[in-house]
Design a protein that fits this description.
The structure is a single chain. The protein is built from 11 helices and 11 strands. The protein has about 325 residues and is α/β, with parallel strands linked by helices. Helix 2 crosses helix 9. About 45% of the residues lie in helices and about 20% in strands. It has helices at about 1-20, 45-60, 75-85, 100-105, 140-150, 165-180, 190-200, 210-220, 265-280, 280-290, 300-320, and strands at about 35-40, 65-70, 90-95, 120-125, 130-135, 155-160, 180-185, 205-210, 220-225, 255-260, 295. Strand 6, helix 6 (about 165-180) and strand 7 form a beta-alpha-beta unit. The longest helix has 22 residues, at about 300-320.
Length: about 325
């Protein structure tokens, strides 16, 4: 309950700020019809379920439907392009993330500009990543894992959820920081990557916490550390990589709402308020906690700064890792 109390206080401040930002104009009667939220991945996953819960609560608050439109593929580029080309009236939104607005630009050819083609609306959440090894590996610390690389002619292998995934980029950061030979093994999603890592077919993996939890509870995966500069709220006993002497392994995979460029600012402010109020509900807070989602709710200005900052980080990282498109 303490976590929910902190969540409520945080959201209360964000709500007050958003309400103050709303002025007269386009948003007076907004929304007056259904709003479509385009999600860049298939239905059924934890993130999809969270956004559907937010949409349901937003519908109850506004009296208008919030329609979830799943358009997976190309790391979110298909969904992003669809929203880029939508009318800039606030009725078509993108549930974007680190891939659509920071990573894709550097690892593939995309038909949109993350900054110029969108208006940032609201930060929503981020997922902590954990560094895991097979429960039968005998490795019990990050230092032991790094030393293991010296005993293998070809170094270490690490499973990833695919090209440009958080798992790959964190693995590349660990490779660069440690100076050891490590090779990424891409999979079609997190599930098969977790299975092979738990079976010892790869040496380690960075995974978001929720899908890794069943393996951790069964003992088939062992958590060595969490990514980032501080310990994850959901794993207070697991050290962060920074405190273990690996400060360069720090990547937060976040999710946020964007509107097409040209959307009126008063509509953007109204949308932010709607999302704040929806996430303030106990129902949404519970499903976010169940899926180990950390709240990062900030307004459009904060989200815009996050995008700008992450684009710079990903530009440098993808070049150093050798995965940037030519």
């Amino acid at each position: 309950m303490h976590g929910l109390a902190r969540l409520s206080r945080c959201l209360g401040g964000a709500l007050a700020f958003a309400l103050a930002a709303i002025g007269p104009g386009h948003a007076t009667d907004f929304p007056s019809r259904a709003i479509t939220i385009v999600i860049p991945f298939p239905p059924g996953g934890g993130t999809d379920l969270i956004m559907r819960a937010i949409g349901q609560k937003a519908s109850e608050l506004t009296g208008q439907s919030f329609i979830i439109d799943n358009r997976g593929g190309a790391g979110g580029a298909i969904a992003a392009k669809a929203v880029k080309n939508a009318p800039p009236d606030g009725y078509t939104l993108l549930f974007g993330n680190s891939s659509t607005h920071a990573i894709n630009k550097y690892i593939m050819k995309i038909a949109y500009d993350p900054e110029q083609d969108f208006v940032p609306v609201s930060e929503i959440m981020a997922f902590p990543h954990v560094l895991v090894v097979s429960g039968n590996s005998g490795v019990t610390s990050v230092d032991e894992l790094i030393k293991l690389a010296d005993s293998k002619p070809n170094g270490l292998t690490f499973a990833t959820q695919g090209l440009g995934s958080g798992g790959q980029l964190l693995g590349e950061q660990l490779r660069l920081v440690s100076g050891k030979r490590m090779t990424s093994i891409p999979y079609q999603g997190g599930a098969p990557a977790l299975l092979d890592t738990s079976a010892g077919r790869t040496d380690f993996m960075f995974s978001s916490l929720a899908p890794a939890l069943p393996f951790i509870k069964q003992g088939t995966l062992r958590v060595l550390a969490s990514s980032g500069s501080k310990r994850a709220e959901f794993l207070p006993d697991v050290p962060a990589l920074k405190e273990l002497g690996y400060p360069g392994v720090d990547l937060e995979f976040w999710f946020a709402v964007f509107a097409p460029a040209g959307t009126p600012q008063d509509v953007v402010a109204k949308l932010h308020t709607i999302f704040v109020r929806a996430i303030q509900s106990p129902e949404v807070a519970r499903i976010m906690q169940t899926n180990s989602a950390a709240l990062t709710l900030g307004d459009g200005a904060a989200l815009g700064e996050r995008v700008k900052r992450d684009l710079k980080v990903m530009d440098e990282l993808t070049k150093k890792a050798g995965i940037a498109v030519k």
